[in-house]
Design a protein that fits this description.
Blueprint lengths: L19 H59 L2 E9 L4 E9 L6 E7 H11 L4 H21 L1 H12 L11 H4 L4
Antiparallel strand pairs: 1-2, 2-3
Helix pairs in contact: 3-4
Length: 183
């Protein structure tokens, strides 16, 4: 399409014979034509680079897949997620909370947290010198606890417990007192 728009058939020495308005339009057209071809070339170069980068990415993914077998046991042994789960005692009319630690291909480890008042008081006492955390606990203790046990220092504490004894982790005593000791 661009080849049909080439107008280099007028030599520079003949520009002066053109009308002033036409000459201005002609030069403007030539500049736009040159910019358009430059942009087209840049897109072709970028397209070629993109193809090369996609090829490199495929090779990297293949290598990741090959190497995955070497470290897969780490995921099986040490990867876990935590959730805060409630259950209601109909006899006492109280809702209790557990921290559930889930590992792939393993049973869930439940850690008793107590009722809402007990766990919030306990957390506030544990973090008594950290006003920012105390404020977050007061606003949304369940959301804060879920984040803390999946990404914070408590996550690291649980991971240490798992790493200390991966096969006997389920026998490890764990509750609000072990996760958030009050000094």
């Amino acid at each position: 399409m661009l080849k049909k728009r080439i107008i280099d058939f007028i030599p520079k020495s003949k520009y002066n014979k053109l009308d002033e308005d036409i000459r201005i339009e002609y030069l403007s057209y030539k500049r736009l034509f040159w910019n358009t071809t430059q942009k087209e070339d840049a897109i072709k170069r970028a397209s070629t680079k993109l193809k090369d980068e996609r090829k490199k990415l495929r090779l990297m993914k293949r290598e990741l897949t090959e190497r995955n077998g070497v470290i897969a046991h780490l995921r099986d042994n040490f990867y876990f997620t935590c959730s805060v789960v409630s259950f209601h005692n109909k006899v006492k009319g109280i809702t209790y909370y557990n921290l559930c630690i889930s590992k792939p291909n393993d049973k869930v480890k439940n850690c008793s947290l107590g009722n809402e008042e007990t766990i919030t008081e306990h957390l506030l006492q544990h973090y008594k010198t950290n006003n920012k955390v105390k404020s977050e606990i007061k606003d949304d203790w369940k959301g804060w606890l879920k984040y803390e046990t999946n990404f914070g220092k408590t996550y690291e504490k649980i991971l240490d417990m798992i790493m200390d004894s991966p096969t006997k982790f389920h026998d490890t005593k764990m509750n609000r007192h072990t996760l958030f000791p009050i000094k």
